[in-house]
């Protein structure tokens, strides 16, 4: 068993929980072999769940507030590619996210991996989030649809054509889209440096 070291991505402090899949569907078994489910104990001593995704045999990428331990690699576990440093996701494009988070504001986390298709929005749709940064974050989810990431999905990937372009970060407490995802591209040089030093 190899040590699985978490590669933590710098995220802005969450404004409200946006870490669950709402309005999605159950993922087909083994269709997302790069997904990681992390059960953590927070600084306050309470249990929390996060998602993550394998980017190499030794590294899981997740949200900065999530932590993890060792994992056993098997034939059913794979990795997902990262974007180039200059990758830009065009507003209007439809991507996916996946996770084990809540399926509704008052509902518990899911026992099965779920996924949802979400539209990339123009950054102006997220200007109401005080900490939203167009250069480092992606505005995701059509406000007219009842589909979003939510509590428990934090750290999961935003997949566009099979490439992880974002990480579930935060959103509104009522789960109304859009939500904020950390944009991976600006961090690619740093990530590659960490991976080389593994």
UniProtKB/TrEMBL annotation:
Query: Which molecular function terms from Gene Ontology are attached?
Result: serine-type endopeptidase activity
| Residue ranges annotated for the Peptidase S1 domain, each copy included | 21-196
Q: Which Gene3D superfamilies match?
A: Trypsin-like serine proteases
Highest taxon of the lineage: Eukaryota
Q: What is this protein called?
A: Peptidase S1 domain-containing protein
Is this entry keyworded Hydrolase?
yes
Report the leader peptide range. Answer: 1-18
> Which terms in the GO cellular component ontology are assigned?
cytoplasm; extracellular space
Q: Name one GO biological process term.
A: proteolysis
**Keyword vocabulary terms for this entry:** Disulfide bond, Hydrolase, Protease, Serine protease, Signal, Zymogen
InterPro entries to which the protein is assigned, alphabetical: Peptidase_S1_PA, Peptidase_S1_PA_chymotrypsin, Peptidase_S1A, Trypsin_dom, TRYPSIN_HIS, TRYPSIN_SER
Query: Has the keyword DNA repair been applied to this entry?
Result: no
């Amino acid at each position: 068993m190899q040590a699985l070291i978490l590669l933590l991505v710098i995220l802005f402090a969450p404004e409200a929980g946006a870490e669950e899949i709402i309005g999605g569907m159950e993922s087909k078994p083994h269709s997302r072999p790069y997904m990681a489910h992390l059960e953590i104990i927070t600084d306050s001593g309470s249990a929390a769940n996060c998602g993550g995704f394998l980017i190499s045999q030794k590294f899981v990428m997740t949200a900065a507030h999530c932590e993890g331990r060792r994992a056993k690699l098997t034939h059913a576990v794979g990795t997902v590619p990262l974007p180039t440093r200059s990758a830009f996701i065009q507003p209007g494009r439809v991507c996916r996210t996946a996770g084990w988070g809540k399926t509704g504001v008052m509902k518990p986390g899911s026992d099965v991996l779920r996924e949802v298709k979400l539209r990339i929005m123009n950054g102006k749709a997220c200007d109401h989030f005080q900490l939203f940064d167009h250069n480092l974050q992606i505005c995701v989810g059509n406000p007219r649809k009842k589909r979003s990431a939510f509590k428990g999905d934090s750290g999961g990937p935003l997949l566009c054509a099979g490439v992880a372009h974002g990480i579930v970060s935060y959103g509104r407490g009522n789960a109304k889209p859009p939500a904020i995802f950390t944009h991976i591209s600006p961090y690619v040089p740093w990530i590659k440096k960490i991976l080389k030093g593994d």
